[in-house]
Amino acid sequence: MRMRIFIVFLSFFLSFANVSFGASELSKIKAEIKQTEQQNKKLAEKVETSEREISKTKKDLVKAADKVSSLEDERAAMAKKIAELDDKREKIVADMEKNRGRISDAAASILFVASHPSFDASDMRDYVLMSAVLSGTAMQLDQEIEKAQTQVKELEKIRNARAIEKEKLDRTAKKYSNEKKELDKLLKTRSAQNEKLKNEHSALQKKLRDLSERAKSISELSAGVGSSEMSSDSRFSRRKLNLPVRGRIVVRFGEKTALGLKSDGWRVRTRGDALVMAPADGVVKFADAFRGFGRVVIMSHKNGYNTVMTNLGDIDVMLGQEVLAGEPIGRMNPDKPEMYLEVRRGNNAVDPSKLFKEE
Description:
Blueprint: H1 2-115, H2 124-193, H3 195-214, H4 218-225, E1 247-251, E2 266-270, E3 275-277, E4 282-289, E5 295-300, E6 305-315, E7 322-323, E8 328-332, E9 338-345, E10 348-350
Antiparallel strand pairs: 1-2, 2-9, 3-8, 4-5, 4-7, 5-6, 6-8, 6-9, 9-10
Helix pairs in contact: 1-2
């Protein structure tokens, strides 16, 4: 009887011990799950923060690029005006030197006649002729002196105008330097944030180099890198966009090129080293050199559009990188400051005037 009671008690104890042990293990598992959830939450927060930082960097870059590009434009215009004023001044100074010689000759003629007066009847004819010459010389002298006075006034205006432009240029120098530093700093930040793209970059770059070797034209290259999915919406943007680089259009869509071929895009004459910005939100599909076109950036945009930009000297974006409209992507080649801008939708070239504002 006592033995039976003991066995029952032992069974009950072991059963209780197993329950307690199971509860302990469950607690551990729950604790581990909770810890993992907290770690995942922290990781998700970190990813979200990183994405927010990348998004902020992009927006800051758009603002900084616009400021730098505008300042570069303003400073280039001021420098051009100063050069034009210097050129005008040199021409006036050279003309004043010639005028000075003419005034000297006219004055010498007058002084010579005045110092050799003759009133003899036999010399009257010569005297009349000399008087006529003297009168003409005096009139010429008056005209030359008046011209000299006008030139002096004009020269003074040029000096004042140049001083004003030089002061403006000097005044923007510090602002430009600060804005340029901020832009460079943001570009470095963006480069660091693009670390995750670098692993994919190498294999993709090799593939694109093979493509660029096979492609016979810029259009083939653009078609080869692919574009976004075509849609029934054929709009590139709801509004006309700014050109990717500031400059003057010298060849338009459909016009004959120097080789006598019809142009599938625009040729835009720019300043050397001009900042190049993304024409619209999109993804970088090609960023490398291509025969005869210098360094080329091809971007894919919504609704099946691609934009091709050539003759860059430096490229600041990577393959696969998503960029916002107005975000800096590089700078023009100072030795060849003329961008060929081509827009394609599928296999067709599109007139950029439908998409971009003309400066």
